[in-house]
C-alpha cells in the first residue's frame, strides 16, 4: 500500500502549482529567478510549492 497522489489531492496540488507559477511570472524578480522557481515548482510539485510559499519572490 504505497502513497499515491491522485484524485482530489492531486487536483488541489495542480491548482496550487499553477497559481504559484502565475505569481512567479507576475513578480518583479529577474528572468533567471523566475525560471529557477518555475522549474523547482514543476520538478518538485509539493515540496517546491512549500519552499516557494515561504521563500519565493514577493511583489
Automatic annotation (TrEMBL):
Keyword set, alphabetical order: Cell membrane, Membrane, Transmembrane, Transmembrane helix
Organism (species): uncultured Thiotrichaceae bacterium
GO CC annotations, alphabetized: plasma membrane
Membrane topology designation: Multi-pass membrane protein
Record's protein name: Phospholipase_D-nuclease N-terminal
Domain Cardiolipin synthase N-terminal: 15-57
Location of the protein in the cell: Cell membrane
TM spans (from-to): 36-55
Amino acid at each position: 500500500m504505497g502513497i499515491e497522489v491522485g484524485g482530489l489531492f492531486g487536483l488541489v496540488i495542480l491548482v496550487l502549482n499553477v497559481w504559484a507559477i502565475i505569481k512567479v511570472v507576475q513578480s518583479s524578480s529577474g528572468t533567471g529567478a523566475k525560471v529557477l522557481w518555475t522549474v523547482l515548482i514543476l520538478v518538485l510539485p509539493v515540496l517546491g510549492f512549500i519552499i516557494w510559499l515561504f521563500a519565493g519572490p514577493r511583489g
